[in-house]
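// run 5 | inverse folding | seed 20
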């Protein structure tokens, strides 16, 4: 199996492209009811909101004086897709594949 990282402009674009690839609503974590060869699909984020965060380069300090990197949402709606071995990414999703694959993805399947 292999994981594919997808990035769309927004939820609506993700939904339209995934519907065209045979994934029906709702758009959330799924490991059943997917087209043949798709093993799991999950919008990134604890709430499956598609949001990925990255450091801004700035440091902020909390009320206890602990400094930590400031984080901001990365533009787009991000979805992880797990495919079975030998299964090609559907053509409807090819334009949305993140390339090169992120070195440190915000989330991975377990």
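// decoded
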């Amino acid at each position: 199996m292999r994981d594919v990282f997808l990035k769309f402009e927004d939820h609506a674009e993700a939904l339209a492209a995934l519907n065209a690839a045979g994934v029906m609503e709702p758009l959330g974590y799924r490991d059943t009811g997917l087209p043949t060869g798709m093993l799991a699909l999950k919008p990134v984020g604890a709430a499956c909101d598609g949001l990925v965060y990255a450091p801004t380069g700035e440091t902020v300090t909390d009320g206890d004086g602990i400094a930590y990197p400031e984080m901001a949402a990365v533009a787009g709606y991000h979805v992880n897709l797990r495919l079975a071995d030998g299964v090609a990414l559907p053509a409807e999703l090819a334009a949305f594949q993140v390339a090169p694959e992120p070195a440190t993805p915000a989330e991975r399947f377990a």
